[in-house]
Fold DUF2306 domain-containing protein.
Amino acid sequence: MLVLGVVAARARATPQHRAWMIRAYAIGMGSGTVAPVMFPVYLISGEPPTGLTADIVVLGMWLLTIAVGQWVVRRLAFPRPL
């Protein structure tokens, strides 16, 4: 993703560069969205979530973040008329 963003920037394709950078940022921030879900579970149970449940939460939060990033890219590409 980052390589595609740099290639687009070097080609002076600003909209494509912006889209690839938003996607790369969303992937990078995917792990940050796990904390608001896992931390309350840790506080309540006293133990960090492990196993399949933790794996599903991590994957789900990452996919959610990527989906939101893609939604932002599409929203910027086709802005709503005022």
Remarks:
- Residues 2-77 form one domain.
